Each structure stands twice: as structure tokens, then as C-alpha cells.
């Protein structure tokens, strides 16, 4: 009995490094995934960067600081490092992940091989969207376990290698939900509307900044119900499902970006498949 008590006490003393809920949910260190790096138990939040970009740092379970690092789809498996404001570097391992191929037929040939005028427009729109993804506001995200933005089954997963009319194009940078035209889209966490647009590929689009570089993009909307600068509560309606831009039918395309890396939104709704 006494030995049992000792073992129990020993086990209770260990959890200084035990993984908390956020780490268990989000630590999926694959290309297009998320790495959670333990930063220790300092009194003040350390600041950290990855590839020169500021990182989301939160305190887990009221004890240790963790950095939540977005890994671009182009990341190679192996050792990666983040840098702390103290100059200290912390390493973590990236595992390999296989992404499948998808072949899509698009009737509008301009959406596969755009002409010069459309290419100029696409370039301008890409720059505008990249600037939005690079914003970093100090607010802490209201929740890291996101709500699904629409009620509907997942259709096309993140990371698919896509061939439009037989030609390989950018991999799928978000997660698709099948939903009827007009279905309301709700903010998966609180946030500020930082950009809206009507884009060549993405159609009617809303960007929501959840804080510290964690940013959502919602695409192909039939209607946008918010304006730039609006503050959305968790669950606040931002628009309606549609098929604007390059879409084969009504659905919601949702991107999640962390430190300017587009990552698999499935991780944040607890639906990640390794
Ligand atoms: Zn999509």
C-alpha cells in the first residue's frame, strides 16, 4: 500500500512536462501541419519566431508556455527550429505525410490557363491576400479547438495534389465542406474581419484574424454579411455558402493560416487524419 502511494505521488509529480489538451490536439508535425513546442514556465510570455515570422504563444494549463508553429506544405521532413527572443533555438521533428491526388474537370478554360489580363489580376489578388495572412495582432485566440464553420460533411481534404483538366496546379490549401447554397457560415472562433474581396479563384471571400497570426479565410461565398473592421464573436455569422470563383458547385472552402503558413484546418476541429 505504501509503495502504491509512493508510485502514485511520483506519477503526480511528473506532469510538469505532461502534454496538455491543446498540445495533444494540435501537435501534428507534418508538412501542412502544426508543431507545438514547449517554451518552459517563465513568468512572462517568451516571444518566438519561425523562419523570421512571429509565432502564436499561449500558456497551457496555466503553467507552461507553448509555441504553436504552422508548417508550410513545402516543409521537408527532418529537424526544424524556432528562435526565442533570448536567442535560444529549440528544435522539433517534422514527420512525412502522403497527400493524395485529385483530378478535376473545369469547363471554364480561363480558370485553368488564365490569359494575361487575368494573370495580372490573380497576381494582384494573391499579394493582397498574402499581406492579410502576414498580419500579427497581439490578441489571444478565444479558442483553439475551433467550431465547424458550417454544418455539413467534409468533402475535399487539405493538401490534395490537384490536376485541373489534366494540368497540375497548386495543392488544396484548405478544407472543403459540402453545404447547400445559402447555408450560413459562422466564425469558428472570435476574430476581426481584416479583408474581404471578390477574387478570380476564391470568389467572394472573408478573412478573419483570430489573433497572433492565426487567420481564417472563407471562400466561394454567395453573400458576405460583414465589413472590414467588424469584430465577430465565436459563432458570429459572416456570410453564406455559394459557388463564386473557381468552384464546381456550392461548398465552403476554409483556409487556416498560422505564421503565414496555410495548415490543415482539420487539426483545429479535431478531425485530422495522419
Ligand atoms: Zn477547397
Write structural notes for this entry.
By secondary structure, the chain is mainly β. The protein folds into two domains: 12-94, Peptidoglycan hydrolase domains (Immunoglobulin-like, Sandwich); 101-269, Glucose Permease (Domain IIA). Helices cover 13% and strands 36% of the residues. It contains three helices and 20 strands. It has helices at 2-13, 21-26, 116-133; strands spanning 34-40, 48-50, 53-54, 56-60, 64-70, 78-84, 89-94, 101-104, 161-164, 167-168, 175-178, 184-186, 191-199, 203-211, 214-221, 223-224, 231-232, 237-240, 251-258, 261-263. Strands 11, 13, 14, 15, 17, 19 and 20 form a seven-stranded antiparallel beta sheet that branches. The chain has a four-stranded antiparallel beta sheet with strand order 3-2-6-7, with no helix packed on it. A three-stranded antiparallel beta sheet has the order 1-5-4. The model is unreliable at 6-16 (pLDDT under 50). It binds zinc ion. Zinc ion is lined by residues 156, 172, 174, 176, 253.
Highlighted features:
Glucose Permease (Domain IIA), 2 domains, binds zinc ion
Tally the helices. 3
Uncertain stretches: 6-16
- End-to-end separation in angstroms reads 42 Å
The kinds of small molecule bound in this structure are: zinc ion
Strand content: 35-45%
Number of domains: 2
Shape annotation = globular
- Mean pLDDT, all residues: 92
Amino acid at each position: 500500500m505504501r509503495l502504491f502511494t509512493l508510485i502514485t505521488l511520483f506519477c503526480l509529480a511528473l506532469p510538469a512536462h505532461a502534454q496538455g489538451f491543446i498540445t495533444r490536439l494540435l501537435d501534428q508535425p507534418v508538412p501542412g501541419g502544426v508543431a507545438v513546442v514547449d517554451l518552459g514556465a517563465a513568468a512572462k510570455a517568451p516571444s518566438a519566431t519561425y523562419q523570421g515570422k512571429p509565432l502564436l504563444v499561449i500558456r497551457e494549463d496555466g503553467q507552461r508556455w507553448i509555441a504553436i508553429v504552422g508548417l508550410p506544405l513545402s516543409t521537408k521532413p527532418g529537424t526544424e527550429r524556432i528562435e526565442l527572443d533570448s536567442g535560444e533555438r529549440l528544435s522539433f521533428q517534422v514527420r512525412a505525410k502522403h497527400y493524395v491526388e485529385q483530378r478535376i474537370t473545369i469547363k471554364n478554360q480561363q480558370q485553368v490557363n488564365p490569359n494575361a489580363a487575368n494573370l495580372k489580376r490573380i497576381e494582384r489578388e494573391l499579394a493582397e491576400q498574402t499581406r492579410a495572412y502576414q498580419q500579427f495582432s497581439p490578441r489571444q485566440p478565444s479558442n483553439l479547438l475551433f467550431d465547424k464553420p458550417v454544418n455539413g460533411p467534409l468533402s475535399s481534404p487539405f493538401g490534395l495534389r490537384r490536376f485541373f483538366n489534366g494540368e497540375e496546379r497548386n495543392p488544396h490549401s484548405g478544407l472543403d465542406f459540402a453545404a447547400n447554397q445559402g447555408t450560413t457560415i459562422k466564425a469558428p472562433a472570435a476574430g476581426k474581419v481584416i479583408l474581404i474581396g471578390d477574387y478570380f479563384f476564391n470568389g467572394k471571400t472573408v478573412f478573419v484574424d483570430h489573433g497572433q497570426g492565426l487567420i481564417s479565410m472563407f471562400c466561394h461565398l454567395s453573400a458576405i454579411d460583414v465589413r472590414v473592421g467588424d469584430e465577430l464573436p465565436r459563432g458570429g455569422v459572416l456570410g453564406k455558402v455559394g459557388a463564386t470563383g473557381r468552384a464546381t458547385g456550392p461548398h465552403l472552402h476554409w483556409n487556416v493560416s498560422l505564421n503565414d503558413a496555410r495548415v490543415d484546418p482539420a487539426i483545429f476541429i479535431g478531425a485530422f487524419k495522419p
